Task: inverse folding
């Protein structure tokens, strides 16, 4: 892949522009700036109901300078698949507006719309082999509706439907490993983070270039629901990668590849501590939760490393 | 030249879809509409159709794909029934609100529970407020003809509204009947090409589809959605007239059968209209002044035509093949009764629920209804407002 320089990217036209209402410190616009620039072709966006949809399309305004379709919460993948079917049909029949040109259909959904309610539609679209890219912007909760737990919410986190109470200490289940679920569809599946823009850009470019389905799961810092300072977002996304909470890797042709090996061991505590949603885990009587967390992160990492050697 | 084929309702709908060859078909199998999808799959596999045929993992995704494809400017068809239609419900509203002229072929079937695969109108009647135009068919011929007209009606710029064409599950979907099929070229020319006002695939003119409205715009948008439905009667009429000119068969909002001097009548939709016609003929032979009003277009509801047809009668029975629990009567009944409210003269109305879960309705049952209507007309006494036909109680 050709070398990518930030100043070249900065000179490119934004397709997602100012005027959106996403929270200060939200990682979604950072992700979009990279992904939308990674395409050599015009993109048509299908967007699941969620933070991005609500904050970018308040009628009569729009933050989108590329065609954008919002249908419902659980069906961004199916909507994208429908757009792709229309594209193929109209291209074949010479009725594509503006003539026969290459277009790519891309879907964006949050973790609620992807891990949970939209998983069936996503799985179906990937299995059918539509030429679409699906990007999950994973901010680890139903942030649009005020921070309820999702299948992506990490162990221990206090969410409004899994609050840390006197008896129950937040969410007591481990998060769903969606990236592996998608990899099991024998497609290009990758995990990326807004903190590592080059990696994200490259993965997006690769996914867009693939003639067929591709999936990227991007960790998105959410100061509002992670209960952190707004300026800490990207730093926390980076810490998630460095503590191995969110490994950067990709699965291509059935092969796992870790794209970034953290240079030194950083305890998971460093990632948990700045986030208010984990505050209860730092009380002495709950310290076992941090130990459990570390243990699971280590196990998951070891498993991932093993997969790269298959 | 047109020719006569022996087709069941599903095959008749699939035949029309084959001739129209839409850009995209996204559909999921469900009894009793499955073979519509299977026929289309075979046509595509054999290269007879060049449609992008996609097989989603659920009806919810099928309708979601239809919405995606239709925003992209494609002409789109799907088929479903019963639980499948119910699973689509969330997206049926979105398709109508986004003004997408998707056409759906529905083989009417009951809703669970208990699960039952046979024909009744519970599925489509539950969909009457989704914003879709609803056209019902009495037989396979009408199903075929209605599909051809549906694309013209829905895609008309003044309408831009999705259309469901329905027929009774099994009774029509699986029964072989003579169907006059028209020449491919004639059907293609009649339907023409979809020419959407906007499309999400026009990357040089990007549009934002499906934005969020707050309290400041939602109401206006919902009101403007009604304009399509308000314009639909004019377009349904025009398309029906053009269809008659081209193919010789006449279609309106309702069909009046021996209503000229009728004193009592039944209002019904779907295949039961055919059974009722036989009974009307028999009773007419006996000199009784009976008639039938068959509903073809249920949404938009042809209130004016209903008032004109019924207001001078003495007694009328409205037959519903669906329940509306907690309401005054079945859906068709409440619509008919509500339409007559504005009329100075009105007949005595009674409502019957019949045929749920595919329960037979035979000529003798319909005769019983007419015989009761005769008594009501003679005495002016109505009795029970709501009754059930062929039900063990």
Result:
């Amino acid at each position: 892949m050709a070398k990518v320089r930030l100043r070249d990217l900065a000179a490119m036209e934004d397709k997602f522009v100012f005027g959106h209402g996403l929270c200060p410190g939200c990682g979604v616009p950072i992700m979009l700036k990279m992904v939308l620039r990674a395409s050599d072709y015009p993109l048509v966006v299908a967007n699941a109901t969620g933070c991005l949809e609500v904050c970018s399309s308040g009628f009569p305004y729009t933050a989108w300078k590329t065609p954008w379709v919002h249908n419902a919460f659980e069906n961004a993948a199916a909507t994208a698949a429908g757009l792709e079917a229309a594209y193929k049909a109209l291209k074949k029949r010479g009725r594509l507006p503006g003539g026969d040109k290459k277009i790519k259909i891309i879907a964006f959904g949050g973790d609620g719309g992807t891990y949970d309610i939209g998983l069936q539609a996503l799985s179906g679209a990937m299995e059918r082999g539509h030429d679409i890219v699906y990007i999950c912007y994973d901010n680890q909760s139903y942030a649009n509706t005020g921070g309820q737990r999702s299948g992506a919410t990490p162990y221990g986190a206090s969410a409004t439907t899994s609050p840390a109470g006197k008896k129950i200490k937040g969410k007591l289940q481990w998060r769903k490993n969606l990236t592996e679920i998608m990899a099991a569809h024998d497609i290009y599946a990758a995990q990326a983070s807004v903190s590592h823009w080059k990696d994200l850009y490259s993965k997006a470019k690769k996914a867009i270039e693939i003639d067929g389905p591709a999936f990227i799961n991007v960790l998105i810092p959410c100061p509002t629901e992670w209960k952190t300072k707004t300026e800490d977002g990207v730093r926390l996304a980076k810490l998630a990668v460095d503590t191995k909470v969110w490994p950067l890797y990709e699965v291509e042709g059935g092969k796992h590849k870790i794209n970034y090996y953290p240079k030194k061991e950083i305890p998971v505590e460093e990632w948990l501590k700045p986030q208010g949603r984990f505050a209860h885990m730092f009380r002495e009587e709950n310290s076992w939760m941090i130990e459990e967390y570390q243990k699971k992160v280590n196990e998951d990492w070891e498993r991932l490393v093993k997969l790269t050697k298959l | 030249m047109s020719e006569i084929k022996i087709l069941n309702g599903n095959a008749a709908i699939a035949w029309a879809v084959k001739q129209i060859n839409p850009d995209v078909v996204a559909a999921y199998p469900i009894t009793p509409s499955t073979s519509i999808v299977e026929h289309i799959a075979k046509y595509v596999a054999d290269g007879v159709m060049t449609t992008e045929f996609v097989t989603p993992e659920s009806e919810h995704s099928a309708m979601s794909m239809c919405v995606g494809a239709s925003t992209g400017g494609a002409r789109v068809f799907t088929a479903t029934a019963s639980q499948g239609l119910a699973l689509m419900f969330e997206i049926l509203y979105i398709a109508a609100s986004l003004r997408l002229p998707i056409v759906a072929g529905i083989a009417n079937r009951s809703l669970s529970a208990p699960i039952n695969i046979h024909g009744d109108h519970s599925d489509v009647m539950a969909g009457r407020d989704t914003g879709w135009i609803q056209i019902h068919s009495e037989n396979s011929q009408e199903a075929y003809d209605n599909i051809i007209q549906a694309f013209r009606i829905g895609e008309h710029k003044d309408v831009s509204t999705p259309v469901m064409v329905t027929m009774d599950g099994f009774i029509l979907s699986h029964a072989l009947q003579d169907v006059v099929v028209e020449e491919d070229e004639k059907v293609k020319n009649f339907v023409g090409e979809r020419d959407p006002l906007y499309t999400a695939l026009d990357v040089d003119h990007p549009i934002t589809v499906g934005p969020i409205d707050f309290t400041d715009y939602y109401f206006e948008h919902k009101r403007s959605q009604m304009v399509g439905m308000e314009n639909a009667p004019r377009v349904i009429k025009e398309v029906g007239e053009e269809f008659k000119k081209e193919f010789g068969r006449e279609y309106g909002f309702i069909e009046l059968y021996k209503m000229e001097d009728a004193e009592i009548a039944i209002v019904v939709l779907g295949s039961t209209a055919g059974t009722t016609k036989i009974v009307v003929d028999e009773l007419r032979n006996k000199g009784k002044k009976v008639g039938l009003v068959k509903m073809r277009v249920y949404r938009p509801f042809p209130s004016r035509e209903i008032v004109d047809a019924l207001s001078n009668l003495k007694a009328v029975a409205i037959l519903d093949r669906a329940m509306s629990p907690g309401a005054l009567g079945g859906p068709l009944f409440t619509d008919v009764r509500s339409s007559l409210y504005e009329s100075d003269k009105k007949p005595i109305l009674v409502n019957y629920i019949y045929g749920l879960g595919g329960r037979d309705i035979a000529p003798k049952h319909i005769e019983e209804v007419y015989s009761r209507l005769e008594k009501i007309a003679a005495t002016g006494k109505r009795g029970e407002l709501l009754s059930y036909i062929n039900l063990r109680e």
About this structure: Residues 13-308 of chain A form a domain with the Rossmann fold fold (CATH 3.40.50.970). The two ends of chain A are 25 Å apart (CA to CA).
